[in-house]
Give the backbone structure.
Amino acid sequence: MPSLPKTHAQPEEVQAGKLTGPAAD
């Protein structure tokens, strides 16, 4: 899992199931 800024999850990431949206702290 790449180090992405925990400000807001990208739509692609959410659809991929990698993150859980903005709450992916």
Residues 11-16 form the longest helix (6 residues). The CA atoms of residues 3 and 21 lie 15 Å apart. The mean pLDDT is 61.
